[in-house]
Amino acid sequence: MKLFILSRIRSFAHAFHGWGHVLRTQHNAWIHSTIATIVFILAIWLRLPPRDWAVLILTTAMVFSAEFVNTAIEAVVDLASPDRHPLAKIGKDVGAAAVLVAALAAILIGLLLLGPPLWAKLILLFTAN
Questions:
Q1: Per the confidence metrics, is the pTM higher than 0.85?
Q2: Within-domain flag for 108
Q3: For a Cys-Cys bond, which of 20, 35, 75, 81 suits 88, CB 3.0-4.6 Å?
Q4: Residue 17: inside a domain, yes or no?
């Protein structure tokens, strides 16, 4: 049992090391983090219901997961093909496209969930006398 627990702890350590690597080396991860923070602050301010929070959390996880997988693909491609190769470019481009799809979906979901309550709150703020 002790070995199992130590193995799980090491697994978490490796995962957090990978997360840290992405945050240290990938500029887009900082953009994702900043936008996610703004979205979560807005969601608190708008007092979104739990179901909307669940969708926002899943959407944010989807974007970060795509960014993490893309970073892993880039590292493996660089290792396997240090020289320029058309197939290496395709692998990297497709990985980047996955992040783009996830980010565009997140924008649409954010607009759908945050847009109406934000609009209503802004109207109240600017029309209140």
A1: yes
A2: yes
A3: 81
A4: no
